Structures are given as C-alpha cells and as structure tokens.
C-alpha cells in the first residue's frame, strides 16, 4: 500500500485521527441518531484526503455502538484501546468486510482493478448473520477501481440490501461510476484539506523530532490538500526536483537550464525511483493545468488549449511508462522539449 493510499502514513483501518471533514462527520452522526440509517454511503474526493479514514471511523462507530449512540458523542471517535478499534485495525472483526485491489501472486504488485471475485465475496459475507448481533459493514476502497463485472455485482447487492448492512464506498471519481450505483447512495463529497490541516496530519502521523521541517513544509505546500500525497512527497525527492524544475521554467520561453534539467531526468530514471517519477509526473500535470487555467483567465485561449493538451499527453505518457516499463529519461526529455516550445508566463507558475 502506498503512502498516498494510507492517507497520512497510517493505514486507514488503524488511523485514530480525522482532520477536517467535520460537516461530513456530523451528518453521519445525525443519521445514526435518527434511527433511519441509509444502507449505502459514497465518500468521494481526491486521493489521500481522508476518505478511507472516515469510512473506517464510521465503520468502527457502528460496530462499537450500533444504534445506541452515546448521549455525549459529538464525533465518530472510538478509543484506540476499544476492542472494536483493535479488531478493525487488525482486519479481524467478524462483522466487517473490505473489498480492495489485491496483490497479483505472480508479481506481488497490486492488480489494476477490483475483480468480480472480490465483489462476490462481499455478497457472500453479507448473507451471514452478524456475529455480534448488530450491523455488518462492507468497505469498498476504492469503488472506482472495480471492473464492469464487479460493479454490476455490487449494484445487485445495493439494489436488494440485506437488513442491518452498511455499505461504505470510497470513491476518487464519482462521475465514472454507474449512475445506478450513485443513485442508491447518500453522497458525501469531501474537499481537500487546507495547508494548515495537512501540516496537522503530518505532525500527528510523523511528529517533528528529527524531521526536516523545510522538506515537510514544501511537501504540505505541494500536496494539493492531500495528507497522503504530502507524506509521500516528504519521503521522496519529487518535491525538491519539481521545485527546481519549476524555478528553471520561470522564464517566459525558450530552453530550460540544462544544468538543472539533465540531473533531474537522471535522478528520476533509476530503477529504484519509480515512486519519485510517479509523484513528479503528478506535480508536473497539475502545474500544466495551472498554466492552462491562468492563460484562459487572461484570455489566451489558444495557449491555454496547448497546455491542457500537453497535460493530457503527460498523463498518457506517465501511464505508458508505468505499464510498458519505458525509459523514463526519454519520456521526461520529450515532455521537457515540448514544454520549451510553449509560452510560459511567469505569473502563471508562481505558487
């Protein structure tokens, strides 16, 4: 599991903290207190912002309290020493099932999609009586990772849900889901965190002793409101390399400084630098989209279109490099060459 997927360095099932998302948590608590709990909830938003953390927090609360909400509860918090917390963290609670991408036994890497076998496992689990006599909970992380057969299998369960079952669907891109799945869920869209909130998550997850505070600050600033990404950036060279690149690209046009570009492509091309490359490409695409948006706001629609097209091309190039194990140095060199041929207004780059 990557640092981004752990949403702050701690696996969501074992994470006792939730920073931000207060309104979403209150809405859930109100629904629990009402006694009219909807059977399916869709928690959506960008990767790494706390969606899965909230899903497991929701699951723990229901498994610990069922419908008997403590009168003084003002959140979904369950103490870390509570038996339910420990069982959920260990993946051993008998009334909780999780559905996610599984490792490929041949390569050890996560499969690209959630398959129908995993979805059917959820269905079989929910036909059983709850071991603790309360709710049975299914967490699907992430629902937009399902292939078509898996999505249809989950849809069938959502259409005819067993009694006292709760479905928590973590989702990065709700627009890609089957409309029939979305329509059967209470949708809770979660927003990226502020930079200050990202810093808070980093402090909780990693502390500050012995940390390079400058690196953590840079990671938080480049995180896009995602603690998961901030943690990944803090543990890699991607933030440092991207910042150097962005500084080199601060001139309006023309070739970039080769003393910066060449070491950058070298640093991202090694066998062990796959994660750094992936993070750098994510930052690069966001920078391109920022350029496109800034140019569009300034009325330069043609130039904005060129930057938007290059961002899409960069996404495809990153995917090909990953899937086909292409020479990352060559991929970066070609993209930088295309960047050099586009106008780069200084005001667009500044963050």
Which features characterize this protein?
single chain, 351 residues, alpha/beta, Rossmann fold, 2 domains, 51% helix, elongated, disordered N terminus
Describe the protein's architecture and organization:
This protein has 351 residues and is an alpha/beta fold. It has 2 domains: 12-189, P-loop containing nucleotide triphosphate hydrolases (Rossmann fold), CATH 3.40.50.300; 236-349. Helices cover 51% and strands 7% of the residues. The chain contains 15 helices and 5 strands. The protein has helices at 22-34, 51-65, 83-90, 116-126, 148-159, 179-182, 195-206, 213-221, 227-234, 238-248, 258-267, 274-297, 301-324, 328-340, 346-349, and strands at 40-44, 96-99, 136-141, 165-171, 186-189. It has a 5-stranded parallel β-sheet with strand order 2-3-4-1-5, sandwiched between helices. Helix 5 (148-159) links the parallel strand 3 and strand 4. Mean pLDDT is 88; it is low at 1-5 and 347-351.
Structure described in brief:
With 351 residues, the protein is an alpha/beta fold. The chain is built from 15 helices and five strands. The longest helix is centred in the last third of the chain and has 24 residues, at 274-297.
CATH topology of the largest domain: the name is: Rossmann fold
Structural class estimated from helices and strands: alpha/beta
Residue share in helix: 40-55%
Radius of gyration: 22 Å
Instruction: Assign the CATH superfamily of the largest domain.
Output: P-loop containing nucleotide triphosphate hydrolases
| Widest sheet, order of strands | 2-3-4-1-5
Reading the helices and strands in chain order gives HEHHEHEHEHEHHHHHHHHH
Contiguous runs where pLDDT drops below 50 for at least 5 residues: 1-5, 347-351
- Biggest sheet architecture: 5 strands, parallel
Beta-strand content bin = 5-15%
Number of helices: 15
Number of strands: 5
At the first level of CATH, what is the class of the largest domain?
Answer: Alpha Beta
CATH-defined architecture of the largest domain: 3-Layer(aba) Sandwich
């Amino acid at each position: 599991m990557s640092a981004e997927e752990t949403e702050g360095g701690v696996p969501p099932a074992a994470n006792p903290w939730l920073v931000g998302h207060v309104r979403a948590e209150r809405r859930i608590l109100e629904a629990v207190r009402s006694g009219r709990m909807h059977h399916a909830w869709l928690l959506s938003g960008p990767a790494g912002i706390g969606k899965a953390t909230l899903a497991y927090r929701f699951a723990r609360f229901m498994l610990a309290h069922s419908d008997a909400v403590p009168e003084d509860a003002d959140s979904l918090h369950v103490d870390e020493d509570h038996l339910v917390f420990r069982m959920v963290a260990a993946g051993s609670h008998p009334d909780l099932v999780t559905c996610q991408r599984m490792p490929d036994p041949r390569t050890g890497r996560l499969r690209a999609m959630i398959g129908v076998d995993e979805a059917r496992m959820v269905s079989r689990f929910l036909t059983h009586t709850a071991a603790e006599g309360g709710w049975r909970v299914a967490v699907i992380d992430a629902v937009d990772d399902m292939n078509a057969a898996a999505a249809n299998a989950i849809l069938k369960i959502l259409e005819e849900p067993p009694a006292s079952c709760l479905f928590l669907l973590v989702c990065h891109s709700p627009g890609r889901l089957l409309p029939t799945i979305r329509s059967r869920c209470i949708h809770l869209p979660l927003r990226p965190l502020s930079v200050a909130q990202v810093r808070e998550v980093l402090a909780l997850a990693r502390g500050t002793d012995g940390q390079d505070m400058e690196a953590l600050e840079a990671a938080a600033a480049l995180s896009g409101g995602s603690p998961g990404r901030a943690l990944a950036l803090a543990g890699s060279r991607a933030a440092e390399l991207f910042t150097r690149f962005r500084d080199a690209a601060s001139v309006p046009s023309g070739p970039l400084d080769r003393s910066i570009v060449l070491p950058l492509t070298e640093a991202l091309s090694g066998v062990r630098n796959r994660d750094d490359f992936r993070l750098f490409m994510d930052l690069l695409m966001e920078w391109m989209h920022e350029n496109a948006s800034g140019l569009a706001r300034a009325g330069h629609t043609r130039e904005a279109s060129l930057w938007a097209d290059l961002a899409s091309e960069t996404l495809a190039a990153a995917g090909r490099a990953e899937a086909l194990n292409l020479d990352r140095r060559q991929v970066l060199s070609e993209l930088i060459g295309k960047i050099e041929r586009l106008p780069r207004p200084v005001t667009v780059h500044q963050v």
